[in-house]
Specification:
Length: about 260
């Protein structure tokens, strides 16, 4: 699916006719991404564990004129990942984009963190992204795109005990590079990551005081990101506007990496 040398520049940001699989679509960045992709013309295959919230996202996407299939999915289960992709394939006949938006976090001192709690974060953030990438890559054609959600914490430290989250997001960046190396030249699938700083979503709302303190001290922009600022970057990486970008992690952190 070449972007074509004569294609108008702004059209390269459109997703008309594309089929996008988005995990974590029941809330936060996953839900915001679904709505932006629908507005950009994509058909959606949405996965998340919480069925009621997932259906609400699908209904909102349909209200924007897109088609949306909601499939309850636990990304830690490879069979669920395969089912999500298979359902999208049977509904739409193709899969062009994957956004690995499902995420989990913890903030527990390393000497007190229980093994299962650590494993759960890694299972969702790293293993879930890998199982989804595998399932999608098996049916994607040339010109397809995978966007993983990393974090600023993959390359820096913050004033919180987040060993599991940090390790999982650093691993996502390594996974992104390796899958790009394996799949871009051979299969024509671009693989990139977006690395947000602090975004006020359901995942961070419970730690709002800590987030605001960190933003004040670390973010050159002096504020949290709005969800649209992150998902617009995901849209860029998924679209033909980024057709020559693969294997990279693009920070959307308000300058946190340089402080």
């Amino acid at each position: 699916m070449s972007p074509g040398p004569g294609r108008p520049l702004l059209d390269r940001f459109r997703l008309d006719g594309r089929v996008a699989v988005i995990t974590g679509a029941s809330s936060g960045l996953g839900a915001a991404c679904a709505l932006l992709f629908a507005a950009a013309g994509a058909n959606l295959v949405l996965g998340a564990r919480r069925a009621e919230q997932l259906d609400a996202t699908a209904q909102a996407a349909r209200a924007l004129g897109g088609r949306a299939l909601a499939v309850p999915t636990d990304v830690t289960a490879p069979a669920d990942c395969e089912h999500l992709v298979s359902a999208g394939w049977h509904e739409f006949g193709r899969v062009d984009i994957l956004v690995n938006g499902a995420g989990s976090a913890s903030a527990v001192p390393a000497l007190r963190e229980e093994p299962e709690a650590f494993r759960r974060v890694v299972d969702v953030n790293l293993m879930g992204s890998y199982w989804m990438a595998q399932a999608c890559a098996r049916v994607m054609g040339p010109g397809s795109s995978i966007v993983n959600v990393s974090s600023v914490i993959a390359t820096t430290t913050l004033d919180a005990p987040q060993a599991a989250y940090t390790a999982s997001k650093a691993a996502i960046e390594g996974l992104t590079r390796d899958l790009a190396q394996q799949w871009t030249g051979r299969l024509g699938i671009r693989v990139n990551a977006v690395a947000p700083g602090f975004v006020m979503t359901e995942l961070t709302a419970s730690s709002e005081a800590y987030v605001q303190r960190m933003v004040a001290g670390r973010a050159l922009a002096g504020r949290c990101a709005e969800a649209i600022e992150v998902v617009a970057t995901i849209l860029f990486l998924a679209s033909d506007a980024a057709s020559y970008i693969t294997g990279c992690s693009l920070p959307v952190d308000g300058g946190m990496r340089v402080t």
